[in-house]
Specification:
homotetramer, alpha/beta, Rossmann fold, 2 domains, five-stranded parallel beta sheet
Chain lengths: 354, 354, 354, 354
């Protein structure tokens, strides 16, 4: 089932869950839009309405009603203000919640997961105090940063990271940014965004040992700004390497990064939403670009799940590059769907559920 | 006189020189546009055609012809490829050239000047091997960075600077960036721009002693990207302070920065194009913004000459802020006009000339 | 005084009334923004905050409170839903209301005025049933159309008008159009807009005789669409002429149109906000354009009050051209300010008031 | 084979011809880009590079060289200036040319074809003086207009058509419109565009009898303007009906319009690029929109081949609606591909060729 189906991330969830091989077609919930069909309120203008859900009506349901319907897995695109209590109540009632909301991301009991990086944090589910569980995906800007960093950590042992973002309109949801605020403009402020990037990066790149999350000690210094592109967050990254490396080694680290491949995992099959290559290195002089690279990722179900990096420059201990990821897919709905797929495969959910 | 009057920076020069109190109304030159009037080829869509020059025809002139007309001061908006030889030939023939072109910026004999910061570099004119002279203004992205940094150097003794730019369309001139390249997009590459920011910053913030420029030893690590705003380059800056300071001290350093004020210079009157406050600190949470702040600067003749800074965050040794300046005014035509005004006032030009 | 000062049109009113030669600096009212200063909530990003009003606080006042303060003239930028009752109550209490709201435009007792066209409709004030009065300005799209048509009516005796609009973002106010709705898009629907253009044109171009408005019998068939420009409504107009005329005669009719000039009115002085030439004919092949022509109008106080027309094509009985006007100035706040100036000059207000 | 593969329309041709069921993978030609691969110069930023052609090199070939290679079918995306002579020479040498260029569209021997409307005009091929042939598709703006009009002609017997366009950036090709010309702007002029719409509509809707094209006598009065959307031309249409009809009848005429369906044509199978429903009526109040509707058309190979109409308003003899079509697909490359498919099926080409 899908909480908050009428928002921008909610609609990306609907797109990904329509006809998903593991999860049932979701019940759609929403607050202000209850009674409308998904087709009526569809806002992802350049994406088709998911055929299996076009006529589905948005319902307004309490946690109790949801549990009563036997829902076992819920995807949450709730606004942060509502998510905290609602998701916890669902977890208490036995539902496995996979959430895009920031409310629980920094909870000491809740894993913040990007499967290619810290899939093992999912083990924290078993120590959660609820009958169900809560697993979160990262902030939209964090995803593109940490996926580009993760393959480099063992190679470069970075001491410090500086990042400036060029974030797309859809990161603010719909209606989001007024056109008069952004036309012919850039907005150098996104509330709470820099803080999220700084603390989430440390948690995701850190370990989970002895039942506790151990954040990586890696200071991240961020500037977050909004530009006029529709989707795809671009980020300019400079890291200070503790160990020097050549550009060719860095590129190889990115291109070899395939921790979820069946071979790497000793698994029979690929997770449906996992991209074959989570990090794609672009050799062109002027890439990655939002309009060209936001939908990177193969196979088809993993479109928008790959991060594109480019413009690598290595200069003494400074390593500079740009990274780009689809804020609403890898940095949103797709992140949680992949989390749920991995949790299911790890046997942490106990079966196929809606 | 004005070299390259038909380009974007050339037209900003025309705007500023029309009715200038020190310099005669300029002869306009250009290559491909010769024979047309300035009014016909006006591209600064949101600025009125300068009334005194609307009917002036663009002429195609060689350095010899220019010198023969008795021109003493020339402003150059030539493309870099042409500027090198053309400007040197003019200088040889006795003309004082104030140039926006990058060709001579790093010459060991040519000052790269922002009057509020290194006006004393103009003294290098006297050692130049030509009867005339060449003085350059900085790259458009450099201007906003160094004006924000200069007041902080004595206070913070920065050890390193990280900057990421959000550069406006007009930085690429006209026709410049194709609309299909930038609509719904960001371009993470501008040829040579990062290198210019890195080396020009060191030269401008450095000294001029014993007849030589002594660049400041301050590593600048830049990312340059193009966004869809029309004018006004925004930049996200992080600096590593050698000496810690409080946010309030930093703000005071910016607000007290008035090295060209008549009082500070022991002068009778203000330079016409000098802004009262070269660095304006914005207290709002979401400033500076291109559309709101690009024309900062008082009095009227100094519109677009002030740099706006904001979003100051001080965190251990990291100092972060955004800076914004008008790329075509402070970072272009206005920079050279102010250079010429100061050179004239310093007696380096020998009288009022066109 | 100014009703609804915190909206887009309200802020244009504030800009025009700050330091107005006839009217006092306005008291500012608003509903949701009460307590804030105009400077804090300023949204006209490319216009400076009016200095005399920057610190003025928005107040929340009832009609009774407004009347009690001795207000004689009120400018209204109220939302249409609120304007109907509020403005009528003010008129009942003796206030002369000049309104941009659509609520009363089609009232049989309320004039809908563009001074250059139907200034005589102001005489209807004297028959209004209130101690005060209500005068309205036209819809933003209507203004550009009727000002281009009015000089042609006696010449061409048009039988029918076809118009398609390219309306700017600010026509929807702030926050108005979500950026995700318009970026890389055009919206072919603006609620009620086509109907307003059709009926308002007939009322404005009609007469006022025997105490009644006599709409011109001129069918207008409109298509209204929103595009991504910030300000300035462009319109493509085709009219079917009853009497043929040459292009040169049409241009002359536009250029000679100066009904408010002191000479034409037998007056001593110009109305402050009246443009010298209400209709400017552009000879360039690709004009008028929003970014180049929206601020047309001289002298300085009349910026944005002139309509620009161009691309005239005359083909048998079809006359085609484009017209452009500033939706928030001539088609908004400036329209009502000019109405008030004319009413005052005609002695319909009885003195200078705030 | 594909002439002019490096331009915007050329690349859409490449997209459609890669893996086409009837035509061989094309040889790619171009002038300035010879030697580069299609992948290197790919500009359709939001479309993937066609996999089968990514490595294909652009060649520079004369008509003689092309003929010598045994090419039987050529698709032309040549610039109009070059197309006239080049295409005629190819036709002389036996090649069947399907062209998007305007050069031959109004030739008395050359059909201008939209298969759903005037597929019978293809019979003109047999009377052409060349061993090969030339068939043209319409101008990008004409396509959306005539496909919306064609189903209404028998019903309404229109006497006159008024149209105003909102044309996308890609209609001007790449690099095309400079970003500084269109950002925050609308351009009310596109050279020759209005004339093309007016004369092409008459030819397409007309007959072919006795070896001559008989244009429909239907005056079209057009305004053409460029807006900032990337792809998809929107048009506001008003027609004057000779016979009145109800809105429901008009909608039915559009929805029943399926002249290429196998049943209608007495054919076994559908043409690959023909959309199931060439005209899609949108019932939403604010459609069609470029971003939502430009890719209309099923099955997958016919994406961008359907025209979307909406906002139907019927008022006395005036019928008003908006129409939208993909300028580079239905109004460009896709138009010629469908023409070639129909010509092949009609036996006018004599076999499958590249």
């Amino acid at each position: 089932m899908l909480l908050g189906a009428s928002g921008w991330i909610g609609q990306h969830f609907a797109r990904l869950l329509d006809d998903h091989p593991y999860f049932d077609s979701p019940i759609l919930t929403g607050a202000t839009s209850a009674g409308k069909s998904l087709g009526e309120l569809w806002q992802l203008a350049d994406q088709p309405v998911p055929q299996g859900l076009a006529e589905s009506k948005i319902e307004r349901l309490t946690p109790a009603e949801i549990a009563r319907r036997g829902v076992e897995v819920a995807f949450s695109a709730l606004p942060s203000g509502e998510a905290g209590a609602f998701e916890a109540e669902l977890a208490r009632r036995g539902v496995a919640v996979f959430s895009n909301a920031s409310a629980h991301r920094m909870d000491p009991q809740v894993p913040l997961v990007i499967p290619e990086i810290n899939g093992d944090h999912l083990d924290a589910i078993e120590r959660q105090p609820w009958e169900g569980s809560i697993v979160t995906n990262s902030n939209c800007s964090t995803a593109g940063l940490v996926l580009a960093l993760a393959p480099l950590v063992p190679l470069l042992r970075p001491k410090e990271v500086f990042v400036a973002t060029y974030q797309a309109l859809s990161g603010a949801g719909y209606p989001g940014v007024p056109s008069l605020s952004i036309e012919d403009n850039v907005l150098p402020f996104i509330a709470e965004e820099e803080e999220k990037m700084e603390r989430e990066t440390a948690k995701i790149l850190g370990g989970f040992r002895g039942g506790r999350f151990r954040p990586l000690s890696l200071p991240v210094s961020a500037h977050c700004a909004r530009v006029g592109s529709r989707e795809g967050h671009l980020e300019a990254v400079t890291l200070k390497a503790g160990t020097p490396a050549k550009a060719s080694e860095i590129v190889r680290a990115w291109e070899d990064f395939q921790p979820l491949s069946p071979r790497a995992r000793g698994d029979r099959e690929t997770l449906p939403t996992a991209p074959d290559h989570p990090v794609v290195y672009r050799r062109e002089v002027d890439r990655p670009q939002p309009i060209r690279d936001r939908w990177a990722g193969t196979p088809a179900r993993a479109r928008g799940m790959a991060v594109s990096v480019g413009r690598l420059r290595v200069d003494r201990e400074h390593v500079r590059f740009f990274t780009l990821s689809h804020n609403a897919v890898r940095g949103g709905a797709g992140g949680s769907v992949l989390n749920a797929e991995l949790a299911l495969r790890k046997g942490l959910l106990g079966g196929r559920r809606r």
